[in-house]
Amino acid sequence: MSTMNDVAWGDLFKESNILSDIHDNGIAYVTADHMKKYREPRLMAKIDTRELLPGVFKSHKLSILPIKNGEYAIFRDPMKHSFFTFPDDFDQIKIVQHYPSIDLENFDSFNSLENLNESQALDLALMSSIIKGFTNEEKLWLTIRGRQFTRDFKVRIPSINRYINVSRVQIEIDAGYESENAIYIFEAKIGKRENFNIRQLLFPYLEWKNRTSKPVIPIFLFFTNGFYYLFQFDLKNSLGASRVVKRACFTLSTIKPIDICKIMRNATLDSSLVEEIPFPQANDLDKVIDTVSVVNQGFLDKASIAEIFEFDERQGDYYANAARYLGFLQRKNNEFFLTNEGKRLLEYNNPSQRANYIVEQLAKRPAFNQVFQKLLDSNLDFDLVETFNIPQIIENATNLKGSTPKRRASTVRQWLRWISKYAA
Predict the structure, then answer these.
(1) 71-76 and 216-224: which strand pairing?
(2) Which of 51, 64, 264, 364 would be 311's cystine partner, CB 3.0–4.6 Å?
(3) Would you tell me how many other CB atoms lie within 10 Å of the CB of residue 15?
């Protein structure tokens, strides 16, 4: 399915010499005035994850960087150096239960300590001393936030072995904290990320590196389902030279094990759930919970959900439909709304309670009920999940046939991996 950006960039490429310029010179330039003929330049250039790359960029292995106010450079990026991809081992990061020095429940300004936007998540991380704990700084002051224009610096493009000049580019810094020893630049997101455009940290880092004699420490933070994940980066003035040097996961909640045996004893199968809603194909249950939260905040369609999580609209639909499958959302026309079950999910004040409720919902569904029964038969040994014939279970419990059950089995395995973190 083509997006508006796919169409706009496709038309621009057809009516310009961009590809021939890249072939001859390794790089091409396009202005905002030229882009306005096809779509708002700000929207065309907002490519914050690999999933958002327009089709023509994917086909020709290209990337784009702003280099001046109103001018962009397009270049070949076959190794995708413009993006940092996180290793698929989030569950290997030890979860640290953090005890704040102040009682956060006393603050009426936060309607919930779980359903936050990016700025609130950052503010709560500072108030609760999560950021101080990660940085090992006792005293931090918020000194930078919002949009600003850069001065001049250079960025190396490895694929063409060339430095490009960057000048007067608008950047947005979610938060910058200063201590006596360093400046910490934060890029914050709601929802887990598999990758992100390194420009979001690199440009603020290079800008402030030129402004101060103190070390500048770039940190990527995302808040998902009550967990704060923080990644400290080592950056150079070159794409593809980024690496994580420190990472951590904090929660303000007490994590308690859930009792799958008890849930299964009390479960009542509801076969009417089989045909009505598509079988889920959204692998990250934390993000499914986050989807319910952002719908509660007023992001009601797949496009706005996709914009929050910086993936394509198809994935926005997948995650909203996964929340429907669990009973948390309902769909009317092209918009999603919370059900009573969805409201109840958000009323739970820690991840363990939400995980327990999700397993209760899943145990009502025939396919997952069968999988849970196999788990009980194997003494809850999640390492044996790979021996379960999950595609056959899906086929027997749904109307899915052919290769589809095998593809959907991937989601089942990922959800079981998530549940294993909470299982007794």
Answers:
(1) unpaired
(2) 51
(3) 11
Q: What angle do CA 251, 254, 259 make, to 5 degrees?
A: 120
Q: Which helix (H) or strand (E) holds 227?
A: strand 227-234
CA separation for the pair 201, 217 (Å, rounded) = 10
Give the full edge-to-edge strand order of the sheet including 27-31: 27-31, 71-76, 62-68
Q: What is the 3-state secondary structure (H, E, C) of 288-348?
A: HHHHHHHHHCCCCCHHHHHHHHCCCHHHHHHHHHHHHHCCCEEEECCEEEECHHHHHHHHC
Burial class (CB within 10 angstroms; exposed 0-12, middle 13-18, buried 19+) of 106: exposed
Q: Going by DSSP bridges, is the β-strand pair 95-97/243-251 parallel, antiparallel, or unpaired?
A: parallel
Report d(CA 168, CA 145) in Å as an integer.
17
Both tokens assigned to 351: 């991840």
Distance CA 320, CA 253 (A): 26
Which structure tokens are listed for 362? 């899943």
**Cβ atoms within 10 A of the Cβ of 160, count?**
15
What pLDDT, on the 0 to 100 scale, is given for residue 275?
Answer: 59
CA-CA distance, 352 to 371, in Å (whole number)? 21
Spatial distance between the Cα atoms of 173 and 218, rounded to a whole number of angstroms: 11
Strand-pairing partners, residue 244, are 233
In whole angstroms, give the CA distance from residue 18 to residue 316. Answer: 31
Dihedral of the CA atoms 89, 52, 299, 125 (nearest 10)? 40
Identify the pLDDT of residue 112. Answer: 62
pLDDT by residue (tens digit) across 330-367? 999 989 999 999 999 999 988 999 999 999 999 999 99
Whether residue 62 contacts residue 22, with contact meaning beta carbons closer than 8 Å, is answered with yes
Host H or E run for residue 224: strand 216-224
Tokens of 304: 């706005």
